[in-house]
Structure formats: structure tokens, C-alpha cells
């Protein structure tokens, strides 16, 4: 016996005659990482996340600073004409930061260089690894929330078990310790 919904938002349920159990195949998935069942996944995440951010700022800043130095020297060599490139430096810096976060979080380790150094990784709330658009959006939303709500964004992480910040709640992501990661629960088999 099965009941299948007509739209993607409807819950799909199936009944197994042999085991007399109902199973929900649609709707909301449970959180893959529970802070009460696996507290080791979240131990020290908030502090190490700050240091990972600082390392990432250094990684992002070095090419930007080298670009500004190149433009300054190029302007001297071209008797000031090359300094017109300074108007491209700020947009290029923003694009570089977005590409950096997107490529790193969308990569196989699902973490930026700073997060890898601090042994952290970003996952979706249901346990999937990050992808490029999620990483880029995560960075943009972080900068937007920090720009408008600085103290509240940081304080929010102290009052929840998963140490999630505001942009993590909005995007449905969680940052966990990489070395103690527990595999995400698999869907029940229906033989």
C-alpha cells in the first residue's frame, strides 16, 4: 500500500506489509548532526571558526595587496596612466573573495583553507557537503549580516548547540569538526 503525492511538497509514504511499518519518504529530513548525541562534533567550533576566518582573511588579502602593489608600480612606469586600474581593484577583490569561498566550500573537503587548518568543515543541515553556490552565498550572506548586525550575529552562535550563526540558519548549514565527523544517517531500506 502506498500513498504518493502529486506535488514535490506533499509527503510520500509507503507501507511495508512484511514489517508492518510506515515510512516517510518526503517532507523534512532530520538534522544529520545532533549536538546532544554527538557533542564532539561541535566542541570548540565557535573559537576555531574565528581563527579560521582570520586565516581566510590573510589568504584573501595577499593577492589583493599584491594586485594593488602591481597597479601602483604600473602607474609609476606608465607615468600615471596605469593608476586608472585602481577603479577595478575593489570589484576584483569582491569577486576574488566570492570565488575563493565558493571554490573552497564547493571542493572535496567542503572547507576553506582556514577551516582546513582549524579542522572544520561546512555541511548542510541534512549532512550533504557544500557546493560552489552554497559557498559563495555563505560568504555574501555572512558579510551582509555582519555589516548590519555585528554583535548579534556573533552572539547567536553562543546560544545554540550547533554553534550556528545567523547566515547558517538562513542557508541551512552547519560547521562541524572534521576529524570526528559521524557519517550522516542513511535512509531506511525497504526490501
Automatic annotation (TrEMBL):
Keyword annotations: Membrane, Transmembrane, Transmembrane helix
GO CC annotations, alphabetized: membrane
Matches recorded under InterPro entries: RDD
TM ranges: 50-77, 84-111, 131-159
Pfam family, one: RDD
Main localization (coarse): membrane
Localization of this protein: Membrane
Residues annotated as domain RDD: 46-171
Membrane topology: Multi-pass membrane protein
Protein name in UniProt: RDD family protein
Organism of provenance: Bradyrhizobium amphicarpaeae
Taxonomy of the source species: Bacteria, Pseudomonadati, Pseudomonadota, Alphaproteobacteria, Hyphomicrobiales
Amino acid at each position: 500500500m502506498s500513498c504518493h503525492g502529486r506535488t514535490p511538497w506533499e509527503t510520500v509514504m509507503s507501507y511495508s506489509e512484511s514489517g508492518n511499518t510506515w515510512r516517510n519518504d518526503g517532507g523534512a529530513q532530520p538534522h544529520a548532526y545532533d549536538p546532544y548525541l554527538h557533542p564532539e562534533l561541535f566542541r570548540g567550533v565557535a573559537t576555531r571558526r574565528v581563527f579560521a576566518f582570520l586565516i581566510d582573511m590573510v589568504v584573501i588579502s595577499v593577492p589583493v595587496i599584491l594586485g594593488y602593489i602591481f597597479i601602483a608600480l604600473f602607474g609609476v612606469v606608465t607615468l600615471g596612466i596605469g593608476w586608472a586600474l585602481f577603479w577595478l581593484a575593489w570589484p576584483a577583490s569582491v569577486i576574488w573573495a566570492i570565488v575563493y569561498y565558493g571554490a573552497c566550500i564547493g571542493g572535496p573537503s567542503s572547507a576553506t583553507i582556514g577551516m582546513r587548518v582549524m579542522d572544520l568543515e561546512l555541511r548542510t543541515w541534512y549532512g550533504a557537503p557544500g557546493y560552489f553556490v552554497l559557498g559563495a552565498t555563505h560568504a555574501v550572506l555572512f558579510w551582509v549580516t555582519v555589516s548590519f548586525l555585528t554583535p548579534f550575529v556573533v552572539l547567536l552562535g553562543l546560544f545554540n548547540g550547533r554553534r550556528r550563526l545567523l547566515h547558517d540558519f538562513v542557508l541551512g548549514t552547519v560547521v562541524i569538526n572534521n576529524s570526528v565527523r559521524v557519517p550522516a544517517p542513511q535512509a531506511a531500506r525497504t526490501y
